Amino acid sequence: MWTFLLIRTARAAVVLLGLSIVVFMSVRLIPGDPALVFAGDYATPAVVAQVRERFGLDRPWVVQYAVFVRRALAGDLGASVRTGQPVLTEIAPRYARTVVLAAAATLISVLVGLPLGVLAAVRRGGWVDRASIALALLGVSAPTFVVAVLLQYVLAVRLGWLPVTGGGSLRHLVLPAVSLGVFPIAAIARLVRAGLLEVLGEDYIRTARAKGLPEAVVLVRHALRPALIPTATVVAVQFGTMLGAAVFAEAVFAWPGLGRYLVQAVSARDYPVVQAAVLAVGATYILANLAVDLLYRWLDPRIV
Known about the structure:
With 304 residues, the protein is mostly helical. Helices cover 78% and strands 0% of the residues.
């Protein structure tokens, strides 16, 4: 188990290092000079040069990257070019809100998609199965921002059940989380159905039934765990996708998360903020996949 964990952790560290290089290079290919943005359009060349020197933008890229990695390992992500404030102080609360939003959307999609997929497999060809297919088509074809606007209009504006915008309480979290979770529900339900139907045809399932075990025991204890292995991968991927797609829900519901802040930072060529924000999202995605790798061992100990 420890060898498995060390190997997976080492792979995650290599991926994170590669991500840091890609992000570092990408933000510097964005057109525009962040020093000029900070100094102002009417700043003299001498002032722009001072700003560039202050933030280390006059150094070679290799040196800038080495300084960035050294500081990041020490917990220092630099200062924002726009505000001059420490990046970690600015993105930490926004990052936490975005992760909470993505986690809530993932939880909703699993709580709805998992039982729906199980019912579709058990009642194959029935109305539940057909309804899950219709839900899959609806969920895949409806963009997040469209679902967000419809939910906002119906549940907040017309019915008044939930707040229209904001982020001050759990009630504010419901609408953006549901709008993000609609798309993964369809994928999870269809994948659980396909995996369960495949497992239910295995010899050991027929043996369990021949022993007289109740169908519920056969389904939960013998069939469901191996059927969830591909579903766990999809859930991790969807969680990472929702971290990126959260920007749409945050824009519609004015949720104070990382997405909108990152868009503003890209527009202002704020290198430190963009680097830190993308790395934070990427690291979360990598850790989610690492958690799924460990979950594999619980679902099927034969996996190495």
